[in-house]
Amino acid sequence: MDGSSFIPLEIFNGVLLSLFALVPIVVLIVTARAGWGVGRVAQMSMRARLPLGAATMERSIRARTRTLMRVNMWGLLVAIGALAVVLVLTPLGGTPYFIWLFTIVLLFGVLTISAAVVNTRERLFSPAPAAPRVARVQSMRTADYVGRWIDRIPGWILLVSGLFAGGASIVALNGLVPMTALGWLGAAMVIAVGAAFIGRWAERRVIAQPQPASDTVELAWDDLFRTDALSILRMGAAMAAWFPLGLAAAMLMRAGLPLASSGWEAMLGLFPWWGIPIIQVVFLWRQGRLREPLYPAFLRAPDPRVA
Q1: 206-229, pLDDT tens digit by residue?
Q2: Is the omega angle on the peptide bond into residue 129 within 30 degrees of 0, that is, cis?
Q3: How far does Cα 262 stand from its chain's mean position?
Q4: pLDDT of 226-245, one tens digit each?
């Protein structure tokens, strides 16, 4: 195969990444206006069942929403640029394991930075010094915001399963698959553990921030942004934890089945990516919603068990 055969692939990668980059660029242009987000905040209010209250509250919520959107888009644009450098300018672009791993690292980095930085550097509301304040009588935990089920599943279960499957695969496949593949699997396990600890550190930073609010509605809006941030942090860690599990399963199946010349091999090669959209659905379906105990008393749904 001569070197010219690689030119179409490079052109294809460049065009594809350029199209991907158009999305954050367009969003950054659209959200450049300081008044952007009126309709979006109204939709958030309806979805979360939270009133907007005074105009100053609406402006604060709109400013936070705009900041989050722009930080996410800048992070996505930087991630696409970094991926372009790898795909086009280095030989690692032809290594599928590296591409999956590198993409997971970029996604986790963008999600963690945008969720943690925005929620720790900015206060949603800034009541006047003489304004009344509301506060909680007890400290909050991640489970109070995202729920106990999401607090444990699939994050820690995926992490433990991925580490167990990865270690078993390294032992079972030693000598049967290239050492470079096992090396990528080991790297995925290290990244999964690192993502879990970094995610928990970021969660503690988010929860430790004060919540200045002059009434329970403002506090509930602040809780809504916290809930979304913590859910995204858990989602990023779960995505990183899934990868060694999916990669180990794909390696074991490819080593144990005679699929070298069939289309199934390509499908198994994509298996480490299959769990990502499922994890995203699990964590994102509650975005923009509060758990019932976090609502002000007058907005809580009536308990059906009470006659």
Answers
A1: 888 888 888 889 899 999 999 998
A2: no
A3: 34
A4: 999 888 888 888 888 888 88
The Cα-based distances of 292 to 116, 147, 195, 300 in angstroms read 24, 10, 29, 6
292 neighbors 301 (Cβ within 8 angstroms):
yes
- C-beta of residue 241 within 8 angstroms of C-beta of residue 193: no
Res 6 pLDDT > 50? no
- Smallest CA-to-CA distance from 176 within 247, 113, 253, 105 is with 253
Q: How many angstroms separate the CA atoms of 154 and 112, rounded? A: 18
Burial category of 142 from C-beta neighbours within 10 Å (exposed 0-12, middle 13-18, buried 19 and up): buried
Please name which of 194, 133, 138, 134 lies closest in space to residue 162, comparing C-alpha atoms: 194
